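User: Structure please.
Assistant: Input sequence and predicted structure:
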Amino acid sequence: MNLSKYIFLIFFVFMGFIPYSFAIDTKQSEISALEQQANNGDADAQFELAFKYYKGKDIPQDYNKAIEYFSKAANQGDMYAQYSLGMMYYNGNGVSQNYRKAIEWLMKSANQGYMRAQYNLGVMYDKGRGVSQDDSKAIEWYTKAANQGHINAQYNLGITYQNGQGPLKDYGKAIEWYTKAANQGHINAQYNLGVMYLEGQGVSQDQKQALKWLMKSANQGFIEAQYNLGVVYSQGQESIRDYKKAIEWYTKAATQGSSDALFNLGMMYLDGQNIPQDKNKAKEYFEQAARQHNKDAQYNLGIMYDKGDGVVQDKIKAKEYFKQACLNKFLRACKAYEKLND
C-alpha cells in the first residue's frame, strides 16, 4: 500500500517537469487543429477558438478574430456564440459599440432559451438601450431568465415590482422575487427584503423576519444593513431590543464610513441609552460624523459647545458648527447661528 502511494507521488512530480518547448509545441498543435476544425465549419470549434481569442487564452488576445469566429458559430445557430457576439457589440469590444446589433444577437440567443441573453435583453429594455424603454418587455425577459434561476434577474424583478408605477407596482411579487434572489445570497435582495418586513410592504410587519434578512446582508458587509440592524436593536420592539448588539452593528457600519451610524453612536453615549453615559465619546463620534457633513452631528456639536455640555464652553466653536449645519440646510442650526451673532 505504501509503495503504490510512493510510486504515485514520484509519477506526479515527474509529470510536473514537462519541457517548456514541448509544452509550447503541444499548445500550438492544439490551436492549429482547432483552427482547422473551425475553418471546416465546426461550430463548437469556432466558438472555442473565438473564446480563446477573446480571453487571450493560449494565444494572443485578438478581438477581431474573436468577432470573426463568434460570427461564424452564431450564424450556425450557436446560442452561446450569439450571446457572446451580442455582448461584444454591447460593450464595444473589437467593434464600434452598437446597441441595435447587440439586441439582434441577444434576441437570437434568448429565443433559444439562454438565460444570460434573456437577462441582458431585460436590462436593455429596462434602460432603453438600442430599443425604446419598455417596462413590460423588461419584465418579460427578466422573468424568463429568473425562472431559470438567474439571480440578478430575480433581484431586478423585485426592484421593478417594488418601485413600479401604476399596475407595475406589486409588493407581493417584489417579495416573491427578492426572496428567490435572497435565498441565493444576493446581498441587496436580502437587504431590501429586510426593509420590506420592517415597513410591512407586501407582508405583515415582522421585525424578526426583518432581522433575519438584514443579518444575512450585514454579514456580507452591506453597510446599510449593518446600520439598520443598529436601528432595530436600539429602537425596535421591546422583545428584540439589545443595546449591546446595536452598538456592535452601528460600529461595523461606522467603520465602513456611515455618518448616520456615527451620529447614532454619539446619541447613545450622549443620552446614556442603557449604556454608561460618556459625553467625551459622544463628542468624538459627532466629530467624525460632522467631518462627513452630517448636519445632525454638526448641530449637536454646536449645542454642546454653546452650553458647555461635556466640553469646555466655546461660543466660537458653537457658531462654526451651527454655521456648518445651516449650510447643510438645517433650519434650527441657522436660527441658533443667528442668535449667537446677535
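Residues 1-24 have pLDDT under 50 and may be disordered.
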